[in-house]
């Protein structure tokens, strides 16, 4: 009845190698990347939040491309402390192509995202 959503989160190089196959599994609703664990994998625990190194930029682009190929949503989080919730939402939607947003800004981020996409509640 639409009460369960299955997602795939890619958090290391091994997951990146199989991202296309993982996102294409029937029933997967959305995909996301795990910057915290991915940063640890690359030996940079400070990369849990932006700015990221080039390996991380390639990682999120790989996961997004896999989501696009599978025709599923791409969830992304961006917690740059120097950006407002509005700026984060604009960046996630416009620059990263996110179709689902996450962040520590909660309702502020959701409101900004709805305004940018003209989405009305109930969704």
Description:
The model has no long low-confidence stretch (mean pLDDT 91). The chain is 46% helix and 15% strand. It contains six helices and four strands. A four-stranded parallel β-sheet has the order 1-2-3-4. By secondary structure, it is of the alpha/beta class.
Structural category is alpha/beta
Number of helices: 6
The helix-strand sequence is EHHEHHEHEH
Q: Give the low-confidence spans.
A: none
Q: Terminal Cα separation, in Å?
A: 16 Å
Strand content: 15-25%
The strand order across the widest sheet is 1-2-3-4
Cα Rg:
14 Å
Largest sheet entry: 4 strands, parallel
Give the CA-based shape: globular
Mean pLDDT: 91
Give the total of beta strands.
Answer: 4
Fraction of helical residues: 40-55%
Layout of strands and helices, then pairs:
Blueprint: E1 6-10, H1 13-17, H2 19-23, E2 28-33, H3 35-41, H4 54-70, E3 73-77, H5 85-95, E4 100-102, H6 107-117
Parallel strand pairs: 1-2, 2-3, 3-4
Helix pairs in contact: 5-6
Short description:
The chain has six helices and four strands, in the order E-H-H-E-H-H-E-H-E-H.
What descriptive keywords fit this protein?
single chain; 123 residues; alpha/beta; four-stranded parallel β-sheet; 6 helices; 4 strands; 15% strand; globular
């Amino acid at each position: 009845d639409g009460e369960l959503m299955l997602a795939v989160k890619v958090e290391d190089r091994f997951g990146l190698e199989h991202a296309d196959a993982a996102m294409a599994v029937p029933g997967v609703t959305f995909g996301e990347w795990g910057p915290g664990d991915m940063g640890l994998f690359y030996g940079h625990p400070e990369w849990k939040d932006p700015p990221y190194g080039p390996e991380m930029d390639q990682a999120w682009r790989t996961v997004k491309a896999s989501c696009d190929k599978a025709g599923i949503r791409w969830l992304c989080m961006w917690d740059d402390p120097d950006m407002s919730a509005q700026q984060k939402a604009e960046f996630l939607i416009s620059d990263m192509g996110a179709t689902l947003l996450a962040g520590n800004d909660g309702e502020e981020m959701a409101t900004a995202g709805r305004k940018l996409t003209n989405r009305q509640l109930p969704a």
